[in-house]
Amino acid sequence: MDAACSTQLIDGDGTFNVTGVDHFIKEVKLEECGLSYAVVSIMGPQSSGKSTLLNHLFGTNFREMDAFRGRHVLLFTTKGIWIARCAGIEPCTVVMDLEGTDGRERGEDDTAFEKQSALFALAVSDIVLINMWCHDIGREQAANKPLLKTVFQVMMRLFSPRKTTLMFVIRDKTRTPLENLEPVLREDIQKIWDSVPKPQAHKETPLSDFFNVEVVALSSYEEKEEQFKEQVYNLRQRFFQSVAPGGLAGDRRGVVPANAFAFSAKQMWQVIKENKDLDLPAHKVMVATVRCEEIANEKFASFIANENWRELEEAVQSGPVSGFGKKLSSILESCLSEYDTEATYFEEGVRSAKKQQLQEKLLQAVIEQAKWDTSKTREKLQRDIEAHISSVRTEKLSELTTLYQSKLNVALSGPVEALLDGANDETWPAIRKLLKREAELAVYGLSDALSGFDMDKETRNKMLTDLENYARGIVETKAKEEAGRALMRMKDRFATIFSHDSDSMPRVWTGKEDIREITKMARSASLKLLSVMAVIRLDDELDNIEKTLTLALVNSTSNNATNKSISTIDSLASSTWEQVAPEKTLITPVQCKSLWRQFKNETEYTVTQAISAQEANRRNNNWLPPPWAMLALVVLGFNEFMTLLRNPLWLLVLFVGYLVSKALWVQLNISEEFRNGALPGLLSLSTKFLPTVMNLLKKLAEEGQVPSTNTNQNSMNSSAQSEVTTNGESSISSSSSSSPVRSVPIDKSA
To answer: What is the pTM assigned to this prediction?
Structure first.
């Protein structure tokens, strides 16, 4: 049979052609298509050219009306529903040609078959073509209105999970552009939809929830044949790969496998003929149940008739057969594999259940002649299978648990360590928040992963609880590790605060800093760290550890220590904290007291060094004598002061002495020499004093020779201009002017 050859699916009396459909499906090899096939049907008034359109659009050979000398002569009208495969279109596309509506043969009142065929087409088809005349658009008494009302009415009885594509094909288009026709047509469609009675559940449901509406227009076939064919060719391209996402048949929900098409169509027509509502999801399950059972029975019959099985059955009658289990397993595996191949596109739950039944049925093919007792073997096999399943499940569960435990380690260890390193009042609230977030993420992930395992609720909940406890254990372990480094953390914090100012710059002890207050602040910060690390606070319970440590270790050092402070100190002589469970204790009160004593001893040197540096700085910056010494100088030196006033020459002498002293002060850098102490300064100055004095006098002598040099230079210029003396005098003059710096004054006696 040609792939395009048409076959009557349902005759004019409503009888389903089972034999013809089965033959058609085998000829066009529809069973091999799986879910990759599409069904197209066409509706429209009688004699509107539906078959003509299908033959040109899909290459089918439906019988159609003919024309003679411009006058239509009706030779044939479609009766019932016909089916054919589209030629040259992939994937496989099956087209159904429905009997025209408002036909005179059935009479005006007989609309039962019209509604039944419309419902059948909507249930079976992915795409429904509505053939209509262009001159009917906008008319109240249009020929297509009863058809649309029929389609919309029967849609209410069709419980379908997918949307069908309704393609309105406007025939014999006039000169009016499609852009103008389409809005009018869509308005007509909406009016019809609004006027159709609907069940309460769909009173406000829009048309777009049921259908994807498409509109195309074609020219007259008789008047503009070439243009008609060109437009049909362009329309044909849209049916290629129609089942792809976004294609005309892209919604594949509810589609039955191709090898069940005939059975599904027959059952649908039977339900529709009985005037019952058609629930497609339930119908799909029913089809899967029947077809999978048929496939299972076929495979069981094939197993019984298998030549290798028959030979094996005959061989065991004479005794044990070598490799019996391997040979039988091969036959069983082949049988089950064939079932999987043929049933792969049916509903998964039904497919798996029927496969299980087939497997159990195959395993009960008992060989009576051998008189074997298979009960013990079957029981052992069952135990082995259960043990293997348990082993594999345990291994997989262990892998899952390890995976999420490693994720928790990464997510908690580092952040908890960082939070404890910067311990403050918000440390434990932040740790609790972190723990809750990461634990919830891990538990959610594990819970989702466990959904694929067949396990009881109690075991599942235990695994999730164990994961939560593991997360808590990570935090507790990390807190214990950090508590073991509490002394080091305290010293680091003390050094950071004591040796750096508020801008994190190193302190310079100039003498203006309050070392006592800075020390107190640094120790308080270290005590805060100790109190944070003392216990685990994952349950948001209040305690007075910080207050107890402050009263016992900081305030108790005051000279005015009260009896309350003494009693607080005694409260540290314990191995437990008040209101804190022993298992949550990281550092006991006794250990806190010992750590604090060691901390103070190891930080005392830093404080002493700061005090020494501050005192040295003060001494270096204070060169004035004490006030009492200055007053004594004024009183005891009054007579000397009056003497200076009577003889001003002494003031000149003192001024010169001041200048010499100032020069020596600068040259010797006395302030810097005494910065390292008095004795080192004196020793250094004693070695530098004489060279410095000699250097100073040398500079004064050189500066004194500068005016004499300038005088000699002027004399040389004067003698050169007035030279009228003898050669001897000129020679002397010239010689003396050539070396003015090293010249020696001539003695007058010479």
So the answer is: 0.45
